[in-house]
Amino acid sequence: MEIDEMTAPKTPIKSLLLEEIETHLIALGQRKYRAQQVVQWLYQKRVKAFAEMSDLPAALREQLDAGFAFDVLQPIRKTGSRDTTQKFLWQLVDRSLIESVLIPASPALYGEASDRRTICVSTQVGCAYGCKFCASGLDGFSRNLHAGEIVDQILRVEELSGEKINNIVFMGMGEPLANFDNLLRALQIINAHWGIGIGARHITVSTSGLAPRIRELADQPLQIRLAISLHGATDEVREQIMPVNRKYNLAALLDACAYWQARKKQRLTFEYILIHGVNDTPEQAHALAVHAKRLEAKVNLIPYNKVEGLPWERPPIPRQNAFLHILKTAGVVATIRREKGHDIDAACGQLRLQTQRELQAV
Fold first, then answer.
1. Contact 90/99 with Cβ under 8 angstroms?
2. How many Å apart are CA 64 and CA 156, to the nearest integer?
3. Beta strand pairing call for 225-229 and 203-207
């Protein structure tokens, strides 16, 4: 069946690598060096339309506009926290909503940095993995983001906040490793000297535990960091709150983590949200210590961020501290990350969910 060229979707220009842009321009009869000009306009000068690329011939700008999409995320809401955390709600071309969070300098995934500005980036519209404590998947999964939609979150947050981002965490809406190809493409653009130019060691990918994809990511050349959303130290507890554990249990997940560590020669992080009466017992702390010691992993404990409509609660501070004490006594490098943006509902998906429900009520 022939595809009507008038209705075929255009390729988003910010989803393309430099060499791909070169190939397209050569096919249009243009010189290869024009691609360098295009990416300079995209990632250094950060224009919002091909028409603004003033050192390109007018005919080429028209060709680009006819052949490629220049999608720009549209801000719908922005909320600010007392701790200077900022949350951004974006509307995509198809009217879907996603979130990004800008987190101020803080004890982050890997140590202290007074000038650190971290963006928490989304990779999907919604989420299919159904973690029981998370707002991202409450309205189900809609689609993957293309690489340009991932990359544009960084560009737009820098523009609207006036902050220079130097640390990226793929820990927003969605499961990054379930959008593997677009994730890899976005990582290359973010890391490239011709792109945004953020070093690989300042980029962290977080996963709920897709063991085969962890192995595939380990085989990629980029020296990015890995964080595992563990949230349960035994299969019995983890399955209560993370359905993915039924497909890839702790043994499979930890074996994949060992493979990652062997390939990358770097410390990984276990993210562990403390939920009162669910996974915050001394037994879970001791089991978690065993896993962390085996892999020489760092543990970030995160007191649960309350989500409207879900029954979970955060443990009292003495109970949080007791859990931490068990880990440290066992020799594990561990911290309690007092989450940013609690007063603006900065946990993944909350602003999107609230906005969607308000729109539905109109």
1. yes
2. 22
3. parallel
pLDDT at 357: 47
Q: Which residues of 30-43 are buried (b: 16+ CB within 10 A; e: fewer)?
A: beeebbebbbebbb
Domains of the chain, each with CATH number or no CATH: 11-69 (1.10.150.530), 74-361 (3.20.20.70)
Q: Is 348 among the residues known to form the active site?
A: yes
Q: Write out the two tokens for 152.
A: 């544009």
Of 120, 131, 257, 348, the catalytic one is 348
* Catalytic member of 99, 149, 271, 339: 99
Question: What digits encode the pLDDT tens for the residues 35-88?
Answer: 999 999 999 999 999 999 999 999 999 999 999 999 999 999 998 867 678 999
| Average pLDDT score over the chain | 90
Let me know if 134 is a catalytic residue: no
Residues of the chain with pLDDT under 50: 1-5, 107-113, 341, 344, 346, 357-358, 360-362
Lookup result for tokens 């603004």: 52
Give the separation between CA 277 and CA 9, rounded to whole angstroms: 49
Residue indicated by tokens 């008038």: 6
**Angle, alpha carbons 234-270-88 (nearest 5°):** 120
**What pLDDT score was predicted for residue 130?**
85
Query: Both tokens of residue 233?
Result: 């130290």
**pTM of structure:** 0.89
**216, two tokens:** 């595939």
Residue 306 has a pLDDT of 81
**Of 115, 137, 134, 118, which is closest to residue 126 (Cα–Cα)?**
137
Phi, psi angle pair for 348, to nearest 5°: -55, 125
The span from the CA of 231 to the CA of 3, in Å, is 47
Under 8 Å CB-to-CB from 113, ≥6 apart: which residues?
105, 167
- Take residue 241 and report the two structure tokens written for it: 């709150």
